[in-house]
Amino acid sequence: MSDESRPSPAETPATTSAETSAETSAAGRSPARTAAVIPAAGRGVRLGPGAPKALRALGGTPMLIHAVRAMAASRAVSLVVVVAPPDGAGEVKSLLDAHALPERTDFVVVPGGETRQESVRLGLDALPPEYGIVLVHDAARPLVPVDTVDAVIDAVREGAPAVVPAVPLADTVKQVEPAAAPGEPEPVVATPERARLRAVQTPQGFDRATLVRAHGTVTDDVTDDASMVEQLGLAVVVVPGHEEAFKVTRPLDLVLAEAVLARRRLNDGF
Ligand SMILES: Nc1ccn([C@@H]2O[C@H](COP(=O)(O)OP(=O)(O)OP(=O)(O)O)[C@@H](O)[C@H]2O)c(=O)n1
Ligand SMILES: C[C@](O)(CO)[C@H](O)COP(=O)(O)O
């Protein structure tokens, strides 16, 4: 069931690694409730012409539904807020109703904004007060495994104000200056030490008050939520990401996502 008006369920009993964190047992009380905000309001310009990216099919199912299922797969997540394309909230609600989703998870749909940052803020505004931990997960990362989701939640429960999953880089990275004129080469100015670089994924996890403060304070256009927390001078910690949590950005990414999904379905025997 996916209904904006449905009341939040009680926290699901502890069964996963995310449910048995040090915070829960040491304090002897329930952990803060965890909600996931899924910004899904982008056009997907780099993927090419078509429907908004989150609504495009992957293995016959909209990418957004995969992303919603990936968040709801964590037993710690009891609410998913989907930030829909500005004129597509009704369509997204219908999609959620039409697909099988865990009963123990509530779903809310809100219209998004012009930028990812604005969309995330609109999602945060829709959170009921009892949710103390927030995940922000790109609809464009439909295949993130549940172990990665739970690792992020565990790290927030253990006290980190902000947590990012990340993977080492395969390529060497160069810092360049802009070309002097269109068509001119870009001069290289530095080669950062690759061993210290990470490619950052989602879901990124936050203590809710920290993320709300970051969104209320930082006005720069940034590409992820954790960098807003960095700008507040607070610690952001890294947990291992997963190669299957890649972002579907360009057409080749969709080919890869289809292949990963086909392999999973073969392994699962359906
Ligand atoms: N105004 C926006 C822009 C982006 N997003 C979401 O932010 C996530 C990551 O953004 P990206 O992959 O860049 O998606 P798009 O903005 O759709 O891609 P493009 O830049 O190619 O148009 C996506 O799930 C996207 O739907 C959003 O909710 N609201
Ligand atoms: C949040 C993010 O997925 C972390 O890698 C990324 O920064 C989003 O960037 P995009 O250009 O908005 O896709």
**How would you characterize the largest beta sheet?**
8 strands, mixed
CATH-defined architecture = Alpha-Beta Complex
Q: Average the pLDDT over all residues and give the rounded result.
A: 90
- Examine the coordinates and then state which fold CATH places here, giving the name of the CATH topology: Spore Coat Polysaccharide Biosynthesis Protein SpsA, Chain A
Could you provide a short overview of the structure?
It is built from 8 helices and 12 strands. With 270 residues, it is α/β, with parallel strands linked by helices. Mean pLDDT is 90; it is low at 1-28.
Topology (SSEs and partners):
Elements: H1 22-27, E1 33-39, E2 57-58, E3 61-62, H2 63-72, E4 77-84, H3 89-98, E5 106-111, H4 116-125, E6 131-136, H5 146-157, E7 162-168, E8 175-176, E9 188-190, E10 198-200, E11 204-207, H6 208-217, H7 225-231, E12 237-240, H8 251-268
Parallel strand pairs: 1-4, 1-6, 4-5, 7-12
Antiparallel strand pairs: 2-3, 6-11, 7-10, 7-11, 8-9
The structure holds cytidine-5'-triphosphate (CTP) and the ligand C[C@](O)(CO)[C@H](O)COP(=O)(O)O.
Biased composition (Low complexity): 7-27
Pathway: Isoprenoid biosynthesis; isopentenyl diphosphate biosynthesis via DXP pathway; isopentenyl diphosphate from 1-deoxy-D-xylulose 5-phosphate: step 2/6
InterPro entries: IspD, IspD/TarI, IspD/TarI_cytidylyltransf_bact, ISPD_synthase_CS, Nucleotide-diphossugar_trans
